[in-house]
Amino acid sequence: MPPAKKRARTYDAVKIRAAVAAQFGHVGDAVRELGEEELARPSGVGEWSVAELAAHIAWIAHSLAAGLARPPAAVPELTAVEWPFATASLAGKIAEAAKETLGGAPLPELYERAGARMAEELDANPGSRVMDLWIGDMTLADFLVTRTVELVVHTDDLNRALGAEIPIERQALAACTRLLADALALKAPGGSVEVRIPPFAVVQCIEGPRHTRGTPPNVVETDPLTWIRLATGRTDWAAAVEDAQVRASGERADLSALLPVMS
After folding, report:
1. Do the beta carbons of residue 255 and residue 221 sit within 8 Å?
2. Which of 42, 107, 109, 110 has CA 20 to 30 A from 244's CA?
3. 226 and 210 Cβ atoms separated by less than 8 Å
């Protein structure tokens, strides 16, 4: 008998909506306080300055609202866990769209406008609405989970670039961690390695002997932010292991060939 298909993870739609709004608000509050010297710093994300990264984050909210303002699609083509694998081909298009849409306006104005429009559209649309998106049509509920990834990853980018402490919402961090962990399990299905990211996620991946009881022979364990940095290419596997940010035991517990999950 073939193994049972894993049930897709579900998310609390009310909590995800609140987390997306709150995380965008935290970034907006921080960006409004930045001076010219801070905005001109390199962000660590490609060649973007902090100002350009901040503008891109404003575009995340703006584009969500714009997508909801368009006529709905018929059926979803993409689930949240499939989304990380569809992003790379659109990176250039997204960067150009963000620049074109948001260029020229002061950052505080961008955040005020984008945040208000996002809130208005979210209030008017149910999670079941299918959005017509460049990346592939998705339900609003699934797309909002992917927004936690964008917002948490880029909040962490800003914190590292600025030496800042912009808060990260626990619910947003949990959803981001879980989605990227599930994406790893989808990329390398199997049960020979257990990846633990306490307190939010445990997944099994990589083909090989499946473990059923006791301590697994192949275990990877790390904290949520380290996992997110690994999964998005911000941190190198070997360096994270050497710095004891990752604990890996077992002959199969080397994820370097599978990372980043999302680039």
Report:
1. no
2. 42
3. no
